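Entry 14. Structure prediction run on the chain below.
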Amino acid sequence: MNEATAGYGFGVSSSSGAIHTSDFPGMVLVSTPLTRNNYLLWSRSVKVALTAKMKLSFIDGSYPKPAENTEECKHWIRTDSMVFSWIMNSIPKDIAKAFSYAKSARSLWLQLEARFGQTNGPMIYNLQREIASISQGNMDIVSYFTKITMLWDELECVDPTPECTCASQRTVSNKIASTQLMQFLMGLNDSFIAIRSQILVMDPLPSVDKAYSLVLRVES
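Output returned:
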């Protein structure tokens, strides 16, 4: 155990309150720090990283602070401080100093969301508009598909598909898949007219991933 990780109560439990040997305050969760323009992608990356480390509950409110003067509370404070440090390490110093006095990782997260997050309406509008207008242009197929896929993923983040176990779920998923296929095909350059026509007459229509594979073969 080194100095950076000493004294952090390793193995307190197997729950989200545990701190493991790979955890230390100076760790950076994500490769791209927060800016004033990338909150959506940054916050998603942080959530993914915290989920992998079983610490998402410290920012989403599902693991509130236990009763004071208990052993669990001591472990919670220790781990919450660790998560707080990780998030601060993912923020540039000129931004981080404004949030230094947040009382917990959850409080810090909510303050960041309030400062940099946008209401979903404008974000959904801008993403839908960008998806509707995207075209391959000078991009190769890989770059074009990567760009449109990122837009779909961002849209799903701010306007997620409702989850249910009812029979209509498959219908909704199929509708989204069909829409994405058409968006991908519409943005292709005219040099892919032939393969686009072939894809459109397939029955059933292929997935967008399959269509991408077919178009990529033609480009190659």
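The mean pLDDT is 87.
Filed with the rest of this week's runs.
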